[in-house]
Specification:
The protein is α/β, with parallel strands linked by helices. It is built from ten helices and 13 strands. The strands form three sheets. Strands 1-9-6-5-4-3-2-13-12 form a nine-stranded mixed beta barrel. A hairpin with a 2-residue loop joins strand 10 (about 220-225) and strand 11. The two termini are about 25 Å apart. One of its GO terms (biological process) is carbohydrate metabolic process. This is Glucan endo-1,3-beta-D-glucosidase. Belongs to the glycosyl hydrolase 17 family.
Length: about 350
């Protein structure tokens, strides 16, 4: 069985990020007791030309192993650090010094401050101030042109997602998401969105065709006169439309980024950077097969080379979830089978997948 998930840089999408052979990266989760070592993992990234990595916390052995490799890194700030980083600018300065400046030969590209924080949780009020303090620390270290500071969201923050043009956030989460999006606009930074076509399909098999969810060519649908070739584009554009509605209602009063003419930033309302996944687990129905995972991820490699219907000239930066099956990952059983490489032995790929 198999499933796939993706993290997409949305401000999740539209950014003028450079278009290289490593536009699709892979998330390196470590919730397993049978995983290959860090050095072996980095060797696999290099062997298969995976030029981008998402790491969920600053793991010193991995950071040391990345030194000098040129692999572009999205580094996560663990959720349990948010309170201190929000309340104490000095803590943010120390975090940047310990986890960024101590590794001068690592190619840091993004810092994800919190992952899928629920607006109803007690951590939600700390996300934006933690982002702001980390951002200031990055700027103080003169790395503002190199490293973007963002956070990742779940797409279930949307009240409506279809047709994509009508995408809108739930009113109940506006207090949380609006100031984050405004901050990202002013710093020209992409929002990160965790996009799971698999979950959308499983929740609505009546209205979503399997081929559409697998990103197969010639399986598209019309949505208010706009043709959508695949479910990934549709979800991504719905988040983009929801962000745009917020920004239209929030005119820019100033830009804290105005003094830097950065050529690598995103537009004002894009999403670029997504996490996407396809499981290879068991007992979850006909969707979860290794063959479907192969189809999905190979199609993903194709579609990220182009923009979405809303952003046709934008290229997408996406991270496949995940490098390995993680047998200690909490939650439903299928969430332990998203890996594209077998954890045992030397890390053999489950199916042919060409990063280019």
């Amino acid at each position: 069985m198999a499933t796939t998930a993706t993290l997409t840089l949305l401000l999740l999408i539209v950014t003028s990020l450079d278009f290289t052979s490593g536009q699709v990266g892979v998330c390196f989760g470590r919730l397993g007791n049978n995983l290959p070592g860090v050095q072996r993992t980095i060797a696999l990234y290099k062997k298969y030309n995976i030029r981008r990595m998402r790491l969920y916390d600053p793991h010193p052995p991995t950071l040391r192993a990345l030194s000098g490799t040129g692999i572009r890194l999205m580094l996560g700030v663990p959720d349990d650090h948010l309170r201190d980083l929000a309340n104490c600018p000095q803590a943010a300065t120390a975090w940047v010094r310990t986890n960024i400046l101590n590794y001068p030969n690592v190619t840091f590209r993004h810092i994800a401050v919190g992952n899928e924080i629920e607006p109803e949780s007690n951590l939600a009020p700390f996300v934006l101030p933690a982002m702001q303090n980390i951002y200031r620390a990055i700027r103080a270290a003169r790395l503002g042109r190199q490293i973007r500071v963002s956070t990742s969201i779940r797409t279930d923050l949307l009240e409506k997602s279809f047709p994509p043009q009508d995408g809108v956030f739930k009113c109940s989460v506006n207090w949380y998401i609006r100031p984050i999006i405004e901050f990202l606009r002013d710093t020209r930074t992409p929002l990160l969105a965790n996009i799971y076509p698999y979950f959308a399909y499983m929740q609505d098999r009546k209205n979503i065709n399997l081929s559409f969810a697998l990103l197969q060519p010639n399986s598209g649908v019309m949505a208010n006169g706009v043709y959508y070739d695949n479910l990934y584009y549709a979800i991504l554009d719905s988040v983009d439309a929801a962000m745009e509605k917020i920004l239209v209602a929030s005119p820019r009063l100033f830009s804290i980024f105005s003094e830097e003419k950065d050529t690598g930033g995103s537009g004002n309302s894009g999403v670029n950077g997504s996490e996407t996944g396809y499981t290879t687990g068991v007992n979850d129905g006909p969707m979860n097969t290794v063959e479907n995972a192969r189809i999905y991820n190979n199609n993903l490699m194709r579609i990220v080379k182009k923009g979405t219907p809303r952003r046709p000239n934008s290229r997408l930066e996406t991270y496949i979830f995940a490098m390995y099956d993680e047998n200690l990952k909490p939650g439903p059983a299928y969430e332990r089978h998203f890996g594209i490489f077998l954890p045992s032995g030397n890390g053999q790929p489950k199916y042919p997948l060409r990063f280019r």
